[in-house]
Amino acid sequence: MNILVTGNLGYVGAVLVPYLRRQYPDSRIVGYDTGYFAHCLTARTRIPESFADAQVYGDVRHLPDSLIKEADAIVCLAAISNDPIGNEHEGPTLDINQVAVLDIARRAAEFGVKSFVFASSCSAYGAAEGPPRREGDSLNPLTAYAKSKVGTEQGLAKLGNGKMSITALRFATACGMSPRLRLDLVLNDFVACAIATKEITVLSDGSPWRPLIDVADMARAVDWAIRRNQNDGGPFLTVNVGSNAWNYQVRELAEAVAEQIPGTRVSINKDGQPDKRSYRVNFDLFEKIAEGYTPIVTLEESIRRLKAGLEAINFSDADFRSSEMMRLKTIQRHRKEGALSTDLRWA
Q1: Under 8 Å between Cβ of 210 and 242
Q2: Which domains does the chain have, with CATH numbers?
Q3: What is the pLDDT of residues 27-65, one digit of tens each?
């Protein structure tokens, strides 16, 4: 099998590619990435892209036909992957996250690619009061990032030719240790705070709900999607990916980190405004059709892995929110140095 992974030099891709190598030892794995965050390594081990057979550098807005034609499966991770960057760069977010993905998927269908996997997001639910959201419930995306994911799902749904399996994995909020760690994710931020300052400050009232998934379990879900038979969901499938046990309020996450890292003080702004992005998600469908690939990492284990990973690189930066582990800061630094244009192309 030939597997093409776009965006493999990011937070998830750095875990996914080594995982796929273990699962598909005889397959050819190709990574394709523009390299915004290639230098943001947070592990002192083998670099993750070395597990691929080839690493190609390029913009997904210009993915060559030759790479698509060679692929049996394509995994689209490449994206402007958080709200702060999307808010500053709405145009490029739409172009990269939606227009480019739909173009790749259209060509993949024409060239006979068997499996197309799109990394979507539960942020599509936005502000959603009431019971946990299921796949068929209404969507309320609040940010450019979330809107781009919804737009891509809608476009993919119209694209299917019945021959290519298209799977939109609507992931819960990512967390956990990675060789290219991000600290602009809620649980990862809390663990970094606990290690660097022994204090977690929750700026909101701590009430918003977040479903979470460890990045290691995200890799397992992608593997399932690559293998997915159309008997499980049809030619096109959107599925919530996570665990019902992993629906947490933000304050619960802070308290869980403090329990795992003794001496940590939690401060919650009880007078603060709740984050509008609050939603619980139902993962029954994924549990039903993805037997053997559903999440196995617990919240406590994810925290322990983060702690161990940060300690292994002697992390102690109390000002980490200004560091390159915050994706917005990295993009801003590239822009300030003149390396990136306003549409986020290399200058």
Answers
A1: no
A2: 2-180+212-244+279-296+330-336 (3.40.50.720)
A3: 999 999 999 999 999 988 899 999 999 999 999 999 999
